[in-house]
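Continuing the batch. This is chain 6 of the set; chains 1 through 5 are on the previous pages. Same settings as before, nothing changed between runs. Recording input and output for traceability.
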Amino acid sequence: MIRVLQIIGSLNRGGAETFLINLYKNIDHDKIRFDFAIYDRPNEKSYFDEVQKLGGRVFFLPDKSKGFTNNIRIIKKIVKENDYEVVWRHTNSCVGGIDLIAAKLGGSKRNILHSHNTGTNKLEKYLHWILRPIVNAMITDRFACGKVAGEWMYGERNFEIVPNGIDLKNFSFSQETRNLYRKQFQVDDRFVIGHIGRFEPVKNHQFLIKILGKLKEMGTDSVLVLIGNGRTERSIKDVVKSYGLESSVKFLGNRNDVAGLLQMMDVFVMPSLYEGLPVTLVEAQVAGLPCVVSDRITQEVDLIGDMDYLSLELPVEVWAEKIIERGQQQRNRDIGAEKVKEAGYDIKEVAKKIQNLLLV
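Output for chain 6:
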């Protein structure tokens, strides 16, 4: 059996974290075990307890902003003292790849970098371009959630696409679950717009509030369901209040019942400034939801051929009209899981692929 050290920002319920936990649940634990090194302390809705139940250990890393030297020293020590031959870093840029230099100094033989995004903020982007040739020169394996994310991280170098697989059965559409959740959240007859994502500027929550305001102006009895936590949550609540929309926005925080919440939605909307290949959009498609997203999100995530891409430069009215149009269309939500499976996103199949790659 080999133990793999997974280095990731947190164990909170974000897209990369959810993929990784799904993978761990479906991999052969007699052959492979995962341990985790994380930067953010887990909250009460994180995957921390699940990792421990699965037999994984968790190490805490110091923030890089407080000094690269200490960060490198801690990672090197963890790798050396626990004899990790395989270290796998999940990141949005080559800034995260520095951790693999520390792992190599600690004795790891196989250093895997996994790209989960297609861009980052201005400062990190500058550091990314500087570090990219250095990081790429010392890693042994290049993984990416999609083609564009791989090109962002590795340029013209070869890389392995690892689909963000999910549990198809768990997210498949259920009319019974839809009715139950719509009753529980008192949205029986309302038009429900859904969004899942941490509260960070990149997710563009303020634009979502503008869309909701426009839908109200157009006479649509809409409610916006926001799932996630983050540093801009308080300011977004202030924006909601300024629009007088408090009764039409539900802030649900981090949840462990996302599969059920997707069932009660009518349209899924994601106006992000940039993304990798969002797990939440894969989940939404399995649940049979129409998805309206920004054209800055990779078209690779359109697994069914039914996603609407709109420019963020378009007037908010255009977004609102498209959302109403898609929500009113008749659709068979039962076919989502089958089509996503055909696209290669069944976590059971992805787990087999990863197992074969790790056991080479």
